[in-house]
């Protein structure tokens, strides 16, 4: 692992982030750590104390953020915690001019791809998590969870286990405890094979993005006659690109509406993901779906 310059490690105290912290100390620098305490589990205080003690032992400055979930927070608990964690990490890393290192492994990558395939089929599901995105880096994507545990044991580093990670209450826990072990029974290198597939597809996605660029020629719209003549796969990608440019968000379902758009004539069509298509005088463009009007009280 080679990381130039300051590095901030998102440190939960689990095996993966413990392994990452130790490796960062050996191969990067200067290194600091950030622990986010959500106060959601009875063990939260113990997790924080463990992180503080280990960082003190390793000579790593530790920052701790406390977060409380609002009663009206949208989405599920895990999504909220993830958003809080990444927001805090991005802010602190930005203040320190550091890269934000997170401890996702090949096992996490395999779980992510399997979950996304089940929940939202499409090319993007197969791409998995990026090794780098802005300040954020994932140095452990080539290592399995078993290997991070072995590293910690060999180095005499204790870690904390979060039982909720394996809970069947969450879809990700069901993927972790059932699908991934099943893949290992098919082939012992299953996790790495999934990760390698994602790497190859990511390279190929760059080619596809270039083809979409050529089809749109820098425009934010396309003639429906031109759209109809494109190969079907390219037409889907073009519609999805237009929708995502309009919203700034992922619009996974937009590409599946090509036939509906071509049959629309002049009019508007909801594409999902907060985007809608507008066809006027034979030209397609996309915009963000306006919010519903607030009923009078």
Could you describe the 3D structure shown?
- With 297 residues, this protein is of the alpha/beta class.
- It folds into 2 domains: 186 residues, Rossmann fold; 70 residues, Uridine Diphospho-n-acetylenolpyruvylglucosamine Reductase, domain 3 (2-Layer Sandwich), CATH 3.30.465.
- The chain has 10 helices and 10 strands.
- The longest helix has 27 residues.
Helix/strand layout:
Elements: E1 7-10, H1 15-27, E2 31-37, H2 44-58, E3 62-66, H3 77-96, E4 99-101, H4 106-119, E5 132-133, E6 136-137, H5 145-154, H6 171-186, H7 190-216, E7 221-223, H8 224-229, H9 232-247, H10 258-262, E8 267-272, E9 275-280, E10 283-288
Parallel strand pairs: 1-2, 1-4, 2-3, 4-6
Antiparallel strand pairs: 5-6, 7-10, 8-9, 9-10
Helix pairs in contact: 1-5, 4-6, 4-7, 7-9
Could you name the key traits of this structure?
10 strands, alpha/beta, six-stranded mixed beta sheet, Rossmann fold, Uridine Diphospho-n-acetylenolpyruvylglucosamine Reductase, domain 3, 10 helices, single chain, four-stranded antiparallel beta sheet, 297 residues
| Whole-angstrom Rg | 22 Å
Strand content: 5-15%
Structural class: alpha/beta
Large-scale geometry: elongated
Quickly name the level 1 CATH class of the largest domain. Alpha Beta
What's the total number of strands? 10
| Average pLDDT score | 88
CATH topology of the largest domain: Rossmann fold
> Number of domains in the coordinates?
2
Second rung of CATH, namely the architecture of the largest domain: 3-Layer(aba) Sandwich
Cα distance, first to last residue? Answer: 59 Å
Taken in chain order, the helices and strands follow as: EHEHEHEHEEHHHEHHHEEE
Low-confidence parts:
none
Can you say what the CATH homologous superfamily of the largest domain is? HUPs
Number of helical regions: 10
The largest β sheet comes out as: 6 strands, mixed
Helix content: 40-55%
Strand arrangement across the biggest beta sheet: 3-2-1-4-6-5
């Amino acid at each position: 692992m080679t990381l130039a310059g300051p590095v901030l490690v998102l440190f939960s105290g689990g095996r993966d982030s413990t392994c990452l912290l130790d490796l960062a100390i050996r191969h990067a620098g200067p290194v600091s750590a950030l622990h986010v305490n959500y106060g959601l589990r009875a063990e939260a205080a113990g997790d924080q104390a463990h992180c503080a003690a280990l960082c003190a032992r390793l000579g790593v400055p530790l920052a701790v953020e406390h977060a409380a979930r609002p009663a009206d927070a949208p989405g599920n608990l895990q999504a909220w915690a993830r958003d809080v964690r990444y927001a805090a990490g991005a802010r602190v890393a930005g203040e320190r001019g550091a890269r934000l290192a997170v401890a996702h492994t090949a096992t996490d990558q395999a779980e992510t791809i399997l979950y996304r395939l089940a929940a939202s089929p499409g090319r993007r599901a197969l791409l998995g998590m990026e090794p780098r995105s802005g300040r954020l880096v994932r140095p452990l994507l080539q290592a399995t969870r078993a290997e991070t545990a072995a590293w910690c044991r060999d180095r005499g580093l204790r870690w904390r286990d979060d039982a909720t990670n394996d809970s069947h209450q969450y879809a990700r826990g069901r993927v972790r405890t059932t699908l991934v072990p099943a893949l290992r029974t098919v082939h012992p290198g299953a996790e790495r094979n999934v990760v390698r597939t994602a790497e190859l597809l990511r390279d190929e996605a760059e080619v596809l993005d270039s083809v979409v660029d050529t089809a749109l020629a820098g425009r934010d719209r396309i003639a429906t006659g031109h759209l109809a003549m494109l190969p079907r796969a390219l037409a889907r990608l073009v519609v999805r690109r237009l929708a995502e440019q309009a919203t700034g968000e992922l619009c996974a379902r937009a590409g599946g509406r090509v036939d509906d758009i071509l049959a629309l004539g002049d009019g508007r069509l909801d594409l999902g993901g907060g985007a809608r298509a507008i066809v006027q005088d034979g030209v397609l463009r996309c915009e963000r779906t306006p919010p519903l009007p607030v009923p009078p009280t």
